[in-house]
Specification:
The chain is globular, with a radius of gyration of 18 Å. Helix content is about 35%, strand content about 25%. The longest helix is centred in the last third of the chain and has 15 residues. It has one domain: 3-Layer(aba) Sandwich (UDP-N-acetylmuramoyl-L-alanine:D-glutamate ligase). Helix 1 crosses helix 7 and helix 5 crosses helix 6. The strands form three sheets. Strands 5-4-1-8-9-10-11-12-13 form a nine-stranded mixed beta sheet, sandwiched between helices. A four-stranded mixed beta sheet has the order 3-2-6-7. It is built from nine helices and 15 strands.
Length: about 300
Amino acid sequence: MPNICVVGSVNMDLINRVQQHPLPGQTVRASTTRYAPGGKGANQAVAAARASQEGQTLLVGAVGADLWGNQLLEMLKVNGVDTQGVVTLNETTGMAVVTVDEAGENTIVVVPGANAGVTRAHIEAMASVFVQCDAIVLQNEIPREVTLRAMELAQQNGVWVLWNPSPLEGVDEGMLGLTDILVVNQTEAAHFVGHSVSDGDSGQVAAKELCRKGPAIVVVTLGAGGVAYADVFGNMEVVPAFTVPVVDTTGAGDTFVGAFAVARMEGRKDALRFAVAAAALAVTRQGAQEAIPSRQETEQLLDGEVGWSPA
C-alpha cells in the first residue's frame, strides 16, 4: 500500500461562526468561537492517513515550543500520522484565524509562526525517510526554498510530487517543472493560465494548458462544480460534486488532496471520485481535521449507502 509524505504547515485554527463576513471597516458579532487543529500540511496528512487502508503517512514540518504545539502533535498521532519529521522550534505555533458564514463559506488569515522556521537543512535531514515514500505532498505555507528543495530531492529519487500551491504567494512556473501532479482551485488555475476558470469546460481547458507547463496530471477543483482533470496522455474529464448539506468548507480542499494522493498511488480508477466524495463529506461537518472522513465513510458514500448523490 502507498506511503505518503506530506511536507507543510501545522496550525491551530481559531474558528469564528458569523451570519455574514464583515465588509472593510465593519465589525460583526460571532455566534461561536472555538479552537481546532489545522494547517494545510497537517490537514492533508490527516486526510491521507484516514483515506489509507494500510499505508503510512509521514508529516514533515514544525510546531512551537508551547501548549498548542504539544496538543497538535498528540492529535496528529491519534489520527495515525507519523510525526518523526515534525520539529519543535523556539517559536509560537502557527495559527489560522478562520471566519465561517451561514452558507459555510470561509475566509482565512494565516499567522506562520513556527512554520516559517522550517529550513532546507530540516528537509535534507529527513530526505532518507521521505524518499522511500510513493509520493510527497506539498503546499505553500512554508518557505518557498524549502518546498523547492523537497521537490528536487523527490524528483532525484523517483518520488511522485503532488503540489497544491496554496496560498498563491511566491509561486512561479519553474516549480511546475518539478511537479508530477498539480492540484489547484479555480483562482490558482487562473493565476497560472491567465484567464478565468469558472466551470467544468474552462477547468478542463486550464488543466490541459497546465499539463504543457510540466505536470503529468492536473486537477482543477471547482467547488460545487466538482473537479476537472487532464493529463499528458490527452485524457480529460469532469467529475461532478456530490449534492450535500454544506456546514463548513474549511479544509475541504485539503481533504481532497490527501484522499486523492492515496487513491492515485493505490492505482484506483475512481481516484478522482473517491477524493470528491471525501471532500463532500468534509463540508457536512464543522472544522478542518475533525471533519475529514474515514476511508470506510467515503466508501459508503461511493456505494450509495449514504443518502446523497452527485450533482
